[in-house]
Design brief:
Blueprint: H1 2-7, H2 11-15, E1 19-23, E2 37-39, E3 43-46, E4 54-57, E5 60-64, E6 67-68, E7 72-73, E8 81-87, E9 92-98, E10 102-110, E11 117-126, E12 132-137, E13 140-141, E14 147-159, E15 162-174, E16 183-192, E17 197-200, E18 205-216, E19 220-221, H3 225-247, H4 249-252, H5 256-274, E20 278-281, H6 292-303, H7 323-334, H8 358-374, H9 378-382, H10 385-396, E21 399-402, E22 405-408, E23 419-425, E24 431-438, E25 444-452, E26 458-461, E27 469-470, E28 476-479, E29 481-484, E30 490-493, H11 496-506, E31 510-513, H12 519-527, H13 536-562, H14 565-572
Antiparallel strand pairs: 1-8, 2-3, 3-4, 4-5, 6-13, 7-12, 8-9, 9-10, 10-11, 11-18, 12-17, 14-15, 15-16, 16-18, 16-19, 20-23, 21-22, 22-30, 23-24, 24-25, 25-28, 26-27, 26-30, 29-31
């Protein structure tokens, strides 16, 4: 009952694949075993009580540092129940524990606008009329050659129910590669000093807001290590002091709760902006089919390991937030020439692998980043998370920006499910929505609409034989056509003359409307089998009834013809 109450607010999101509910072993039937993860491209963390912090190395957040940042309630006898909820739309992970007499709710997120910040919010609720003393497991430092010192704040800061008067400053190193032991990454971590015991009043609630600042350098020679660490320490202390003042009760006037909620909302708003672009697909009941649950989990994992440069605050150490960087990102987002230059990634099984462990998740992210980079999307990758989600969405539909137009290169034979591509970025001020629908006759059609635009845009279907169609915010429908040789099924451009000339440039021999998909294939996706809308058990039962009826009928016939004639005479003669 305790855990059900905690998870109920997220059941609808889980059903719509906007979140993932996962009980800590054993999983419940139907649950998806995806690693709960938070990250912002600068720091990343698997949400587990003993997980180590990860930093960027190569294409993914795959360099662990020996520092375990998660604050947890000490499990003397073990939690009766534990579960996590990953909210894809907000970039937050919720962790719940139910004990005898009290329960704990955790919320963790790596802040999007302040990438050096890992935020933890704990709420411990006593359900009994007894006082409880709760032991906390505080962050653990195992960094090699590390040092820890405490500094006092000139003005103690109250955040929620706790007042912080001291900071712990940790300095250490991590070796990025065994091939070059002379190069080290300097790391500085600052955290508020927290008492390891919390007293719960009778039927009371304690809320802990626990921020943690992490900054690290590029690999440096050992001779530069001390000066690099000194600079990092100074900057992280300043960052933490500034943050605590921002979240304090004095800063908000009406109490720190408003400041904390506002600060969290800044993070959520960035994720909402990222998810404005995306992809949805009709759910298939076919065995081992790719559906929205795995697609959303994969896109979330990739985005969690890429920074949102254009939303970050100015930070000279992190190299973010400067006007010149924002200008470069805007240019990168508008110039996507050549992206995406391969077949659609829905067919690439290697890009939709399991994510039940952190190593699997990191490996999957590396595969995606490598694929996008090598298939012409390097400019979008430079733009950070906003560019990466554009590139992923383009790749799923095999969309490609090519010489003044956007084209869709999916083969008509793969269009046996409904697809929706939302807010494809065409220049600075234009977004395009493309929807592919399988109609009742099992033929696919393409609907195109402008989400917003700063000029006129035109579209044509495969072969571009017909007049270009002016796009508006209302849907324009196009048939799916098959050409010989095979060419794109859709072209979009702002240059009408360019579109009129495409027909003469692609040199197709034959253009026909793509044939309808076979009924058994559509039925397989809709019902999980090829027998139509009724379940397989129904048809098995019908067949069994027919067989039994015929056996009984045969038995009657055999009995009628094979019995001796004197018995028949006796049976039918009147006495």
């Amino acid at each position: 009952m305790c855990m059900d109450d905690r998870l109920t607010p997220y059941i609808l999101q889980n059903y719509e694949f906007d979140a993932n509910i996962r009980h800590v072993a054993p999983l419940l039937p139907g649950e998806r075993d995806y690693t709960p993860y938070v990250g912002n491209g600068y720091i990343g963390l698997e949400v587990a009580h003993d997980a180590a912090l990860n930093i960027k190395h190569g294409r993914a957040m795959q360099l662990p540092i020996r520092f375990q940042p998660v604050v947890s309630v000490l499990q003397n006898g073990g939690a009766e129940k534990e579960a996590t909820v990953v909210e894809y739309l907000t970039g937050m992970v919720h962790r719940f524990q139910c004990f005898s007499g009290y329960f704990v709710s955790y919320t963790l997120y790596a802040h999007r606008t302040q990438p050096n910040l890992l935020m933890q919010e704990l709420q411990i609720t006593n359900t009994r009329n007894l006082m409880e003393n709760i032991e906390l497991v505080l962050p653990r430092n195992r960094l090699p050659k590390s040092s820890t010192r405490s500094i006092s704040l000139s003005d103690p800061v109250q955040i929620g129910m706790f007042t912080y008067s001291e900071l712990d400053v940790i300095a250490g190193t991590v070796q990025p590669s065994s091939d070059d032991p002379g190069k080290l990454i300097a790391i500085s971590i600052v955290k508020p000093k927290l008492e390891p015991t919390v007293q719960l009043r009778k039927r009371g609630t304690v809320r802990i807001i626990y921020p943690l600042i992490v900054e690290y350098s590029k690999p440096v020679a050992e001779a530069q290590l001390k000066s690099t660490l000194d600079n990092l320490e100074q900057h992280t202390i300043q960052a933490m002091t500034k943050l605590l003042q921002k979240l304090s009760a004095k800063a908000s006037g009406t109490g720190s709760l408003n400041s904390i909620n506002t600060f969290r909302q800044e993070h959520i708003n960035v994720w909402a902006d990222l998810w404005a672009t995306g992809f949805s697909i009709s759910t298939s009941k076919a065995e081992n089919s790719l559906n929205g649950d795995r697609i959303n989990a994969t896109m979330y994992a990739v985005l969690s390991q890429v920074r949102s440069f254009e939303f970050e605050e100015v930070n000279t150490v992190l190299g973010s937030g400067s006007p010149s960087m924002r200008e470069d990102i805007a240019k990168a987002l508008t110039y996507a020439e050549g992206c995406y230059d391969s077949y659609h990634t829905l067919q690439a099984e290697n890009l939709w692998r399991d994510m039940s462990t952190l190593n699997q998740l990191n490996s999957l992210v590396s595969s995606w980043m490598l694929t996008l980079e090598k298939q012409g999307c390097h400019n979008l990758i430079r733009a950070g998370a906003s560019g990466v989600i554009q590139a992923m969405t383009l790749s799923i539909g095999s969309f490609r920006f090519s010489n003044q137009h956007l084209e869709c290169n999916m083969h008509p034979k793969f269009l046996h499910r409904d697809f929706h591509f939302r807010r494809l970025n065409y220049g600075n001020k234009t977004h395009v929505n493309v929807t592919i629908i399988v109609k009742d006759d099992n033929k696919a059609v393409i609907n195109v609409a402008l989400d917003r635009s700063d000029r006129s845009y035109y579209a044509c279907d495969g072969g571009c034989l017909d007049e270009p169609v002016l796009l508006t915010q209302s849907r324009r429908e196009f048939p799916v056509k098959l050409t010989e040789p095979l060419t794109a099924i859709l072209y979009i451009t702002e240059d009408k003359q360019h579109m009129e000339e495409i027909h003469h440039a692609i040199h197709v021999k034959e253009v026909v409307e793509a044939p309808a998909h076979e009924q058994h294939l559509i039925a397989l996706h809709k019902h999980g089998h090829q027998l139509g809308g009724l379940p397989a058990l129904f048809w098995v039962s019908v067949c069994a009834i027919i067989i039994v009826f015929h056996i009984f009928l045969c038995k009657l016939i055999i009995k009628e013809y094979c019995e001796p004639s004197d018995k028949l005479r006796y049976r039918y003669n009147k006495p």
